[in-house]
């Protein structure tokens, strides 16, 4: 650094290394999303270049990859069923399952339910039906994994997310995508500064070794 040539304090190179690393990562993250809309630069009436965020000008490709990652990590049959079976609303889900199973049994028997009640007695029939429902609920989590592939195929979540993201306006697309990175932006910028400072320390050591 030019300043180091005139002022060779040990902290100069690490400090400038930190600033360069911080600024580099900040700029890299900035140009990913900015400008949101393309800005055409003209020089003397001639088109020189177009400024457009890296992700923004590749909206279709980014939408495809983003939807793939979202569905592989978050929105898939495994996680959806785990949430329904073991999440905060699991009790409500099993209540709904019991209700519809009871209704299904009644509809399956139809007019024959009267004769079944006469043959078995209402109390015994209710115990048998309750036992069937309880057995279904107990074994449900063991049966569901066999339907994961069908659930993913039926929901078509990846195709739906990809299609919707491709159809977003530039502002909405940035609004959906950017928050996924905001939480780690400060960390990435700080890491850039840290690596810059480390490189500065190494340079300081090398210069001190050569001069000394």
UniProtKB/TrEMBL annotation:
The chain crosses the membrane at residues 12-33, 188-211. One of its GO terms (molecular function) is metal ion binding. This is DUF445 domain-containing protein. It comes from the Eukaryota. Coiled coil: none annotated. Keywords: Membrane, Transmembrane, Transmembrane helix.
